[in-house]
Amino acid sequence: MTTLGRHVRLSVRQALHEQRSFWRSAEYALFTFALPLALLLLIGSTTAGGFLPGTHVKAQMIFVPSILAFGVIVAAYVNLGAKIATLRHDGVLKRIRTTPLPAGAYLSGVLGSTAATTLAITACTAVIGWVAFGAVPRAAGLAEIGGGLALGVVCFGSLGLVLSSVARSAESASPLANATYLPVAIMSGIFDPTFSVPRWLSAAIGLLPVRALAQILQQGYTPVEHAPASDLLVLAGWAVGGGALAVWRFRWQ
């Protein structure tokens, strides 16, 4: 077996192990998987049947893809960042370097497991959005949704690795993650599509990946008035920058 083939096999095996570990941990599974779905049902039920002010666009057609973006952020940024910080604090990452398992295969497995969890959250959110609220993506928008999700996982996964390196302890990782994304998510209209902020603040938030990902996914459901090309550039820029920072800052101990 070639070196590449062995690396792939070990990465897949590690990803499966990470998935089993994830579902056995009630805290990780509840926060990462159940939170977006609960918010979808709770907040979505309060706006059922409503339209965006001054438009014929149903609020659910914007809200459901926004929760899709929220699920990606929670799984790929918050959960991954806190998990890696905890593994480093507990000495697991340091011990991995002394085992026969290549460090790259281990990290690839962790990232692959994160991508699988994100895909599961996305699928469940989309199905519940369809069944409960009748929000169905456009056939022509499926490519945008798929590309946006893939780029979003890469972007926020990279930023999650950066977060794990910036956090000084395992205990500070989750609060730091929440402090850096929740205010931006609120001001981006993730939980309320009608939420408005001053124009200068809206322009600043438009340069951040949270709104960019949400708007790309919203385009897959209902075309809205913004430039999807600029959103892709913002998300791609953060993905490249986050990847470079993750490579530079990542620590095994």
Structural account:
The chain is mainly α and 253 residues long. The protein has one domain. 77% of the residues lie in helices and 0% in strands. It is built from 10 helices and no strands. It has helices at 3-24, 26-46, 60-89, 92-96, 103-133, 142-166, 170-187, 199-205, 209-221, 228-249. Helix 2 (26-46) runs antiparallel to helix 3 (60-89), helix 2 runs parallel beside helix 5 (103-133) and helix 9 packs across helix 10. The two termini are 31 Å apart. The model has no long low-confidence stretch (mean pLDDT 84).
Main attributes?
253 residues; mainly alpha; 0% strand
**Alpha plus pi helix count:** 10
- Helix vs. strand class: mainly alpha
The value of Rg in angstroms is: 19 Å
- The run of helices and strands is HHHHHHHHHH
| Cα shape | globular
Largest sheet: none
Low-confidence stretches: none
Helix content: over 70%
Q: Termini separation (Å)?
A: 31 Å
Report the average pLDDT across residues. Answer: 84
Number of strands: 0
Write down the oligomeric state: single chain
List the domain count as a whole number: 1
How much beta, percentage-wise?
under 5%
